[in-house]
Amino acid sequence: MLLEKRTMSKSPEEEHPQKAFGWAARDTSGVMSPFKFSRRATGNEDVTFKVLYCGVCHSDLHCIKNEWGISMYPLVPGYLSLSLSHGCLFFI
């Protein structure tokens, strides 16, 4: 009898162990609400930083309301940030 080697898939908590928080649009209403999610573990080639402040641009507003027809919800917009990493302040 031949036995198959089975691999167990990882749970979402194992696959994405880093807890995160953001403000998300959950539909086309444009209303943002608190949103907890998880991210993958930081790798050797990654940089970790703490976002102190974050802004949204006009393109983010189009995405929040799905005006271009490509948005997937929940959507956490914003990439313009004032961040802290290893004691250094960055504007990204």
Automatic annotation (TrEMBL):
Say if the entry is tagged with keyword Zinc: yes
Q: Which UniProt keywords apply?
A: Metal-binding, Oxidoreductase, Zinc
Q: InterPro entries annotated for this entry?
A: CAD-like, GroES-like_sf
What does the record give under GO molecular function? Answer: metal ion binding; oxidoreductase activity, acting on the CH-OH group of donors, NAD or NADP as acceptor
Q: What is this protein called?
A: Uncharacterized protein
Q: Which organism is it from?
A: Tetracentron sinense (Spur-leaf)
